[in-house]
């Protein structure tokens, strides 16, 4: 090979690449010698051979042996300068056959010499195979002919002229030009459809390949029609194709119907295969027509194994089972049957529902093994519980069992009592909905039981009548033999009352410790106040500057007020032990009114209302007065700009003994909810700082409670307050102290002169008034020293001395010594808060002892008796 | 002139009592603890004792005072609302705190009826 030629070949090769590398068809070039110059990648792809293999002859099998001779003829013609197009069959390197249309294009140089043949190879596999279906297409054509609606046509093979049948517009709804080249009739087609149609027609004319093209037409009225065009070649006797003939026919309904059917089928298939139940269809001969996946799984047989076979041949054990019986009933009686049974061959519980369909039946199958086992186990446990019903019903606790859906399966007598639901009404119902105002907490606790197996704690539940009760709950998860949770067993104890009592106990304890604390502090505070008080008093005695003296007086007053408050705290801390004696309720009211006269400002009108005669009450007179005076003080404080204060007392009969009710009613500022709820708390006060200790009412509560009574309050802001103290009347067995009105008869005085010695002004005053109103004359002394002065200086002889033991200046002991020494015949009544047995100081024969606190009648009778005794001694 | 022994652990209380006592022309001694109380007991015509002094029970202090050949008068002082039991049982005088100057003065005048001239 010369260099020049080699260069020329190289040039042609690069030109080939530039032109054909990306060509969609396989292309190769042959030198005039017949040698392969080049091939493009598409050709390699079609044949499976590389360029090198094609060149060195290893691709000998490429052209099929029958075509090889033809191929050589064609090639020779091409080399001779003629363009050739033909079809050929080949075999690719991997052995698969292909058909191609080959176009040979000779290229010449300036001298007209052929230097290269470019061969284009186009795959026609599809077209060729279609040709083989010609016979089938002819069949289609015949079917089309039978259709009622079709438009027929013919195309002449020579002239390509189209002729249509007379009633051509049947299908298309418009006519096409008849007697003209068929391409004109295709002008309404889109470019791609036009090409497709022309290809099909030309192929049919050229090779006899039948036409079968479907397309969608949009009709003038906008409707979509599916139109199928079929055609076939018509040959003359020599076998040459002379024309093709065919028809359009409307397949819209068929296509749509098919599409619809397909959609339905798919949807049904999908639905049936996805549902959790097994679904089967049987024909009248019990053959499986359909089985979904779940169903095949249940029966442990593939769908393929089921279809076409009969139920009885595949599952002979079912024949005599309840299932078989039920199915046969459905089949013969055409009724729906439902069966729930254990099917031993498959070791499972099934629930089967059979429906009659057509002449066969449809079967819905459910594997309920799990469910059934749970149900049985639950039943078993519940039964076990019931067998112990007598025992469980004896319990006061609510004992119940619920399944995992919270439905009650067992409910004992205690639960009936506690919640108000009879067992027959609540069994089967969900506790979650019935017993819980807020199921969230129930859910949390239930989850806890399921997680840990046990839960214990307090829960609030609702009773049938809507009460909220507090329960101490113990919940136990019940499992079956295999450890699966089945139910929850619950024992609930009602601790509503217990908790309330506990609260009360805590409150009392709190108050007690507060009292102790307060007492301790108060004691120290008195030490603190001592120097302040004395210093102020010492200084003010010497002070001549009036302004400074006033300041010292205010210091003194402040210290005294402090001391007063401390006294209250201390009396609160001291506790509420007092005496229990019959107390004349009416005289209590009288004492209250006397107190009011002395202390209540004029702007407040005091009204008393006694629905007498009042029963005597059982208790400690001093303490009761303390309570009621405290209420009066509060009432007055609540009416800073005046108002009405009503003291009301009445008997109130009740089942657990008669009571006496005292009410203190004011028209003052009243209290809001918040204040009302705290008004009895220790150290809670609405009064200005320094005015109240916040202990008055809480002490009162303790006292009244100690008396077996109740203190209550009603109030609204701006509408005043009403405090009521209700106390038990003294029982019949005990004689109430004689009312004062009767006293003069038994214990009245005859003008005897009595000296009353007591350091407390109000006590002294009250005693004197009592004695005077009982017919005595009375003198007062605030301590022993004054008493002796009075006694010694008195013109008229004193007949009797009533003396308190505890006096700061010359106390009872010293005074008594003096009296016994100087006035041995003078009767003395010594009053003391301490028991007579404890005293060592007294000389019992010389004085009469009167335990404090005493009532006025007690005093009067003591006075009378002592005077009478002294009379007898004389 | 009498000698009053003030036995109280509160310095301020002792101070004002001393001033009040001295103002009435008497002599005042102070004891802030039991040791000092016992040391000065012999001189006292009157013992004013706080009921709760750290270091010794009230009963012991009363007994110590009463055990003197010439027992002093005794007044118990306390911040509590009720007098201690010992006061009740032994018929002792009791001064509830806070103490009023007038009460104290009356007490001193009662116990020592011929007071020296009041200082001015």
Distance between the termini of chain A: 184 Å
The major sheet of chain B is characterized as: 5 strands, parallel
Mind summarizing the main beta sheet of chain A? 6 strands, antiparallel
* Shape verdict of chain A: elongated
| CATH fold-type name of the largest domain in chain A | Heat Shock Protein 90
Alpha-beta classification of chain A: alpha+beta
CATH class of the largest domain in chain A: Alpha Beta
Provide the structure class of chain B: alpha/beta
Number of separate structural domains of chain A: 7
How would you classify the quaternary structure?
heterodimer
Q: Give the count of helical stretches of chain A.
A: 31
Distance between the termini of chain B: 16 Å
Which chain pair shows the most residues in contact?
Answer: A-B, 43 and 37 residues
H/I helix tally of chain B = 5
Residue-averaged pLDDT of chain A? 79
Give the % helix of chain A: 40-55%
Coarse morphology of chain B: globular
Query: What order do the strands of the largest sheet of chain A run in, or round the barrel if closed?
Result: 8-7-6-11-10-9
Radius of gyration of chain B: 13 Å
Give a brief outline of the structure.
The complex is a heterodimer of chains A (874) and B (120). Chain A is built from 31 helices and 33 strands. Chain A is of the alpha+beta class and 874 residues long.
How would you describe this protein?
The complex is a heterodimer of chains A (874) and B (120). By secondary structure, chain A is of the alpha+beta class. Helices cover 43% and strands 26% of the residues of chain A. Chain A is built from 31 helices and 33 strands. In chain A, the strands form seven sheets. A six-stranded antiparallel sheet of chain A has the order 8-7-6-11-10-9, with helices on both faces. A five-stranded antiparallel sheet of chain A has the order 2-1-5-4-3, with helices on both faces. In chain A, strands 13-12-16-15-14 form a five-stranded antiparallel sheet, with helices on both faces. Chain B is α/β, with parallel strands linked by helices and 120 residues long. Chain B has a single domain (3-75, 93-110), classed as Response regulator (Rossmann fold, 3-Layer(aba) Sandwich). In chain B, β4 (73-78), α4 (85-90) and β5 (93-96) form a beta-alpha-beta unit. The model of chain B has no long low-confidence stretch (mean pLDDT 86). The chains are: A alpha+beta (874), B alpha/beta (120).
